[in-house]
Amino acid sequence: EIVLTQSPGTLSLSPGERATLSCRASQSVSSNFLAWYQQKPGQAPRLLIYAASIRATGIPDRFSGSGSGTDFTLTISRLEPEDFAVYYCQQYGSSPLYTFGQGTKLDIK
Amino acid sequence: QVQLQESGPGLVKPSGTLSLTCAVSGGSISSDIWWSWVRQPPGKGLEWIGEIHHRGSSNYNPSLKSRVTISIDKSKNEFSLELKSVTAADTAVYYCVRHGFFSLEDWGQGTLVTASS
Q1: How confident is the model at residue B56 (pLDDT cuts 50, 70, 90)?
Q2: Are the C-beta atoms of A68 and A31 separated by less than 8 Å?
Q3: What is residue A80's three-state secondary structure?
Q4: CB-based contacts of B1, cutoff 8 Å, min separation 6
Q5: Are residues A38 and A46 in contact, defined by beta-carbon separation less than 8 angstroms?
Q6: Best interface-test mutation with B: which of A97, A99, A102, A104 has the largest number of B CBs within 10 A?
Q7: CA–CA separation, A86 vs B82, rounded Å?
């Protein structure tokens, strides 16, 4: 099983700042198989990025994804108030087919 | 846009069977797409349960495989989850999901199922 480790566990930033969230895999993951989600309290997760760097439909361009192999990054260029949430990375391909990181909570400083 | 809606009992007795249905609207469950169930215990992270394709193929998380069945009803445009022998550890919000490109694209709002006597 591929284990995804996200860091930091909590990130405290102010609106307008840049956020950099990390997802590290225990084994190499194809870039096609890495996705990022945003989850706000009481809501279902929302797909932000798939194939490591492709924004899902309707996702603002302040969200970007990058990385390959075992190290992937989600960057939010300028934080808006609505961006404060929990973010999960997810990989496809190793049994179980889909696994998630433990999440990074993005807090307002 | 495809919409998904979970339904089923919110309370299941320990050792009983959890049964949920996901109604799909705005799209056909017979399209060439996989459909999944994902759960999230209160205050915790996400766990993929399993997936199904309308052609009848399914895949499950090995940690749950012995207790899980996912089925599809094309006539009703819905798919279902059965989880047997539930314990308190199965208490979670259960989401049904439509797949995208090796990702989970469209999610239902989720339904909380509590395993308790």
Answers
A1: confident
A2: yes
A3: coil
A4: B26, B106
A5: yes
A6: A97
A7: 29
Give the span between the Cα atoms of B116 and A14, in whole angstroms.
41
Map tokens 């993005």 to a residue.
A106
Note whether B36 contacts A33, CB cutoff 8 Å: no
Q: Which of A20, A21, A14 is nearest to A101 (CA)?
A: A21
A102 in B contact zone (CB under 8 Å): yes
Of A43, A50, A99, the CB nearest to B102: A50
Q: What is the DSSP letter of A95?
A: S
3-class secondary structure, A46? strand
* SS3 of residue B95 by DSSP: strand
A61 CB-contact burial (10 Å; exposed 0-12 / middle 13-18 / buried 19+): exposed
**So what's the pLDDT on residue A94?**
79
Share of chain A above pLDDT 90, in %: 94
The mean-pLDDT minimum among A29-33, A80-84, B32-36, B95-99 falls in A29-33
Q: How far apart are the first and last CA of chain A?
A: 35
CB contact under 8 A, B100 and A47: yes
The total of other beta-carbon atoms located within 10 Å of residue A108's CB is: 11
Q: Which of A98, A100, A102, A104 to substitute to test the interface with B, most B CBs within 10 Å?
A: A98
Cα angle value B117/B69/B73 (rounded, 5°):
110
| Whole-angstrom distance, CA of residue A108 vs CA of residue A79 | 10
